[in-house]
């Protein structure tokens, strides 16, 4: 990768960082409004390395904990990926998107 390509990648990543920082609170509200008490949402700041480790980006991780046993975590993850792309304009599958999503199924166990 040439130096000019690294520079343009870094510029794209910096632009994505700013967009994600603005949009994450709206995404969290959207998830809470859609699923209500069936989920808990947590956001975490993470660092990712881009452009052959020339740049460290400040990214966001959204963790969704599915509390309702009737809901399928994989289905929710798939829907959220599509909705975040269509509603908020962030394609998390692209390099340098600065946003990651993890969905967990919470299991209750009698002790």
When the domains are counted, the total is 1
Query: Class in CATH?
Result: Alpha Beta
- CATH architecture, by name, is 2-Layer Sandwich
Q: Name the poorly predicted regions.
A: none
Main sheet record: 3 strands, mixed
What is the gyration radius calculated from CA atoms?
16 Å
Care to count the β-strands?
Answer: 3
Q: How are helices and strands ordered from N to C? A: HEEHE
The pLDDT mean sits at 86
C-alpha end-to-end distance: 55 Å
Strand order of the largest sheet: 1-2-3
Q: What is the global morphology? A: elongated
What attributes does this structure have?
111 residues, alpha+beta, GMP Synthetase, Chain A, domain 3
Please give a structural write-up:
By secondary structure, this protein is of the alpha+beta class. It has one domain: GMP Synthetase, Chain A, domain 3. 44% of the residues lie in helices and 28% in strands. The protein has a three-stranded mixed β-sheet with strand order 1-2-3. The mean pLDDT is 86.
């Amino acid at each position: 990768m040439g130096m000019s390509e690294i520079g343009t990648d870094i510029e794209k990543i910096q632009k994505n960082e700013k967009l994600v920082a603005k949009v994450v609170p709206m995404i969290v509200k959207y998830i809470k409004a859609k699923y209500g008490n069936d989920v808990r949402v947590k956001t975490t700041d993470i660092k990712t390395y881009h452009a052959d480790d020339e740049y460290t980006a400040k990214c966001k991780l959204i963790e969704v904990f599915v509390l309702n046993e009737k809901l399928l975590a994989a289905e929710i993850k798939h829907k959220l990926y599509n909705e975040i792309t269509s509603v908020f304009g962030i394609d998390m599958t692209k390099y340098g998107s600065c946003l990651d999503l993890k969905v967990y199924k919470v299991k209750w166990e009698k002790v």
